[in-house]
Specification:
Elements: H1 8-38, H2 41-56, H3 63-70, H4 73-83, H5 92-95, E1 99-109, E2 116-121, E3 124-129, E4 142-150, E5 157-165, H6 174-187, E6 204-214, E7 218-223, E8 242-250, H7 261-270, H8 276-285, H9 293-297, H10 305-327, H11 332-339, H12 343-352
Parallel strand pairs: 5-6, 6-8
Antiparallel strand pairs: 1-4, 2-3, 4-5, 7-8
Helix pairs in contact: 1-2, 2-3, 11-12
Length: 358
Amino acid sequence: MKPKKYTKFTKKRNRVFDSCVFLVPYAMMFLYWQKGEAQGKGNSVNTEVKNAVIVTDKEAQYDENAKRLLGNKHILAHILARTVDEFKGMNPKEVVSYIEGEPMIGIVPVEPGLTNVAREEQGQRVVGFNTENVEAHEGLVRFDIVFYVRMKDGISQIIVNLEVQKDVPTKYKILNRAVFYVSRLVSSQKERDFTKTNYDDIKRVFSIWICMGMDENSLDYVHLANDKLLGDYEWEGKMDLLNIVLIGVSDELPEQDEHYELHRLLGALLSAKLPIEEKLDILETEYEIPMEDEEKEEVGIMSNLGEGIREKAEARGEAKVILGMYRKGYTLEQIADVAEKSVEEIRVIVEKREPALV
């Protein structure tokens, strides 16, 4: 047989074919969405949750994927029902309606002067979170998730920030960063939520931090306290303006228990080793976020992602060993010899240093 001749046309055709194969998963996601839309608002919300789980299953603990998954209103409602006093004891389904607008995911800068913005529209002054021209602010640190929540009185609001970390950061203390974030949420309200010196209009803020890979499950509430050292004078003002919630989630999924309801939900959603079918089953049976049986069968399309999860976990563990050797003074050549890698591969791992989520 004569060898095939590859013309410009056949090369172009092959490139088109490769592109189509690459786009197949995204086309299927679009079909899931179309199906949800056709079945009505309630089912489309459930489909949205399911699609988020499927799409983020491979790298659920990493960057934008984890933010997208946690930014779903049904998931946020479960978090609020277990961390904000006013909503404790409420059915998370009822809490969903108190979340106003769409949560802003990874688009609000943390930096002073950039968190809020004022502009003119049709002669009116419009003030809100700065979410415009993201490209112009490339490289800046941004809040993972920010959203407003209406209180049950129908009048007051709180501002909630949700942050997710793969593990405990080593370059700084996580509580220090949380204090900075919660302070920014207060100071950025100037000229947006209150004007001039109307400090009584400051809204309560919550900065909720989810830290994965902990040795144990934990939940801490950090807030202002007033220790009277002399006299009994009652200073007026709101002691509940600043609120930090620290949620530590261990690698082991806890059993069903009312004390660990939130940790079980977060552990299942962000697990790197839990099968996708089990994740969806936990959402449906334990947290009343229903998934249709016929849609569950389609999850098999993404079932091969589990191997990718294990490979990433192994690579991450290997990187930790390499970085540990580097910090102890071993040369790149010595590390490469032990790890059976090239010096250039070791250099890439050392220089990258795998930072925690920001």
